[in-house]
Write a structure and sequence with these properties.
4-stranded parallel sheet; about 15% strand; binds 6-O-phosphono-beta-D-fructofuranose; alpha/beta; 11 strands; elongated
Length: about 350
């Protein structure tokens, strides 16, 4: 019988995490279960760092960005004896099971730990929207809105100065955010990791725009974009505990190249962590709430090693294994729609 459950948030923060925490606490209290909030993601399980969470503790957190539980990119499988430590601490903390809220890395750990004996359920989270087995992850639409608002603003300033502005959007190896925000904000060209883009073609488009009197340009570039004719040097070679390289700097390289090839004044903007900060939009608050609610129902039903997922209009339980086996990237036919509006 379940008496006490834990919840942790791992990986990069994202708008809507607090909505999940609140939903889990409310639903668990309906069943009379205690909830322990594990701090700093998997690091908290290695250090047995947790605080009790009651309905009073989660009062008012629904619209708050970030995570009241803090987060880290700690991977217990990269720590000597990490798995054993987590299992021992779960026992010490009296956890009957654990809700892991995170992306492919956090959920991948939850999957391994479930096999090792700690009953976990997952809630999918990432602004990148690159997780399989779910239509969308919460936080994504908020991030797209932020990037769209930013690019809308870039239009007016670029136009006033006859400038090209290159806007760098997050999303690691998936171009979802760049494609959707680029489409929504009428970017004149979009570069993503899934399609090797040509700087030469982009410059030709810009020259045509200027020649017909539209003397400015907005270029959306994903931080991990790939090019057929540009050698990209990463700003940093630092990797995290899950082996992901820290991206950033592509907009600057691209802006210099565009200016060199066209002669038009070209500047760059890096949206960076602005896309992850602040309050979630209503859509993400509701999605996060429904996913958190479902996770508790899944515990009740004994559906461990599974995560709650959005499938069409429904929230369903799907195996975590299915979600983490391959990155969900932008399909060619989706990007084709965006390309129609280039120029
Ligand atoms: O995975 C989410 C994400 O925001 C990516 O879009 C980005 O590349 C990465 O995290 C940044 O990570 P950090 O918070 O370590 O800078």
């Amino acid at each position: 019988m379940v008496k006490r459950i834990g919840i942790l948030t791992g990986g990069g923060d994202c708008p809507g995490l607090n909505a999940v925490i609140r939903a889990v606490v409310y639903k668990a209290s309906e069943y009379g279960w205690e909830v322990l909030g594990v701090r700093y993601g998997w690091k908290g399980m290695l250090n047995a760092d947790a605080v009790p969470l009651t309905k009073a503790d989660v009062e008012g957190i629904l619209p708050l960005g970030g995570t009241i539980l803090k987060t880290s990119r700690t991977n217990p499988y990269k720590v000597e004896g990490g798995e054993t430590k987590v299992l021992e601490n779960a026992k010490k903390m009296g956890l009957d099971c654990l809700v892991a809220v995170g992306g492919e890395d956090t959920l991948g750990v939850a999957y391994k730990l479930t096999k090792a004996g700690l009953k976990c359920v997952g809630v999918p989270k990432t602004i990148d929207n690159d997780l399989g087995a779910t239509d969308y992850t919460f936080g994504y639409q908020t991030a797209v809105q932020i990037a769209t608002d930013a690019m809308d603003r870039l239009h007016t300033t670029a136009k006033s100065h006859d400038r090209v502005l290159v806007c760098e959007v997050m999303g690691r190896h998936a171009g979802w955010m760049t494609t959707d925000a680029g489409m929504a904000a009428n970017a004149h060209w979009i570069f993503i990791p899934e399609e090797k883009g040509s700087v030469e073609e982009c410059c030709r488009m810009l020259k045509e725009r200027y020649a017909r009197g539209e003397r400015y340009g907005i270029i959306a570039v994903a931080e991990g974009a790939e090019f057929s004719d540009l050698d990209v040097k990463l700003a940093s070679q630092t990797t995290d505990a899950f082996g992901h390289v820290r991206l950033g700097g592509i907009a600057e390289t691209l802006a210099k190249e565009i200016e060199k090839r066209t002669g038009f004044e070209t500047r760059h903007v890096v949206l960076g962590h602005i896309q992850r900060g602040g309050s979630p939009i209503a859509y993400d608050r509701i999605l996060a709430t429904r996913l958190g609610y479902k996770a508790v129902e899944m515990i009740k039903n004994g559906q461990f090693g599974m995560m709650s997922s959005l499938r069409g209009e429904k929230i369903e339980a799907v195996p975590i294994e299915e979600a983490v086996k391959a990155l969900k990237t932008v399909p060619r036919n989706y990007f084709e729609v965006a390309k129609t509006f280039f120029g």
